[in-house]
Amino acid sequence: MTSQRTVLIVDDDRNTREGLKRALQGHYEVVMAESAEKALPLLDERTVDIVLSDIRMSGMDGMTLLQRIMARSNPPIVVMLTAYGNVETAVEAMKLGAYDFLTKPVNLDHLDILLKRALHSHEVESENITLKAQLDNRFGLESIIGQSDAMQEVFETVKQAAPTQATILILGESGTGKELVAHAIHRLSSRSKGPFIPVHCAALSPTLLESELFGHEKGAFTGATERRRGRFELADGGTLFLDEISEIGTPVQVKLLRVLEERQFERVGGHQTLDVDIRLIAATNADLAAMVKAGTFRNDLFFRLDVVSITLPPLRKRPGDIPLLCSHFLKEFSVRNNKPVEDITPDAMGILSAYNWPGNVRELRNVIERMVVLSRTPRLTVRDIPAPLRGAVQAENPRPVALLKGESARSASPESMADAERLMIFEALKRNGGNRTLAAERLGISRRTLQRKLKEYRQSEVTDKPSPPA
Fold first, then answer.
1. 157 CB contacts (<8 Å, ≥6 apart)?
2. Structural domain of residue 19, as residue ranges?
3. Could you say which of 133, 150, 185 is where a domain stops?
4. Does residue 174 contact residue 366 with C-beta atoms inside 8 Å?
5. Total domain count for the chain?
6. Which of residues 73, 103, 133 is at a domain's end?
7. CA–CA distance, 403 with 322 (Å, rounded to integer)
């Protein structure tokens, strides 16, 4: 059972206050104030969903009260009441943020309908604001995790290219996050209020793909029982994302090239030329340049697509980002599954960092989700890692934990991901003969970052040493 909504009645006429209270108290919790000055403290003391306020009152008038209410961070719905209604006053009240304007004596049936409509509208608006915030958080740059040099370069290119109208080609292995980057580009562009329409080209046959992209007229082919708008039309004013564009056949490539050059096309089976305003982002895990040489992808289309290219590195090329990604996914799935999992042991992190991750970030995300769901303790351990993954690491390195624990670190008893990072850096230096440049490349971080980390560790060692006896 949901709690009652609260209505604050503000009017210097006692009969009006009491009459409205009797009409509303069966469906709402009613609070009353005889002046605007007394109403404001009530708004500070409790949650109020709707304010019904008279305009003409002694002291502070209703219009001033309305302005004070709308200046709040999360204002309630305000409906203004007056016995001296006119169009100019109503317009002014609406401009200041009032939901509606009623004249006295108030029609109670009308008031009941108005309040229900206002509450529903407010709920929808709040849900939309929440959803937008969730989408911004999910699809903004902040959702793409990585501190390695390769990922910093990706972030910089996205920031530079997103505000432009340039066509963008995203390259990278499956699971590296190409669609996430496409979403971020859209959210950071001037088209962010327009639609983002994704098309996964490999999932559609050539004939079906052409119809999906360009739409079709009724009777264009067997089964075309009505006109259908294609993805280009649906993306008008926004962004069209073509994933796995290497799977598009030659006939569709020709039509796609024309759209990129002229921003015009016809539906399948149609003769009307349609204009479209879209930004195209394409992605592939294939080598399009090699396909051009092989004659399976049009050279002119390739150059049209490759205005700005962004290459996402595979996870195995940026192992230094693995602890960061694990921490991010751990928090996400702990909250989602209501599991109090707080950390990953260094031994487990060592195995996760040593794995090759052929499925890249997507595979890592799925593994952490599985580990969290099946965990029985607040810390993920080696036992929580799927057996096939442990076996793959064991086959490549009989002592996978040694990736984190060198001989000098065996007694350190690391207790956090920060310790795992520290030990991984020392192991990388050891495996590369102390060469900091090679160690940084292996870890997927810059030499400057490695030097900064080592300096922090030296300072920490000095701080942790006990003071000599006096």
1. 308, 310
2. 6-133
3. 133
4. no
5. 3
6. 133
7. 13
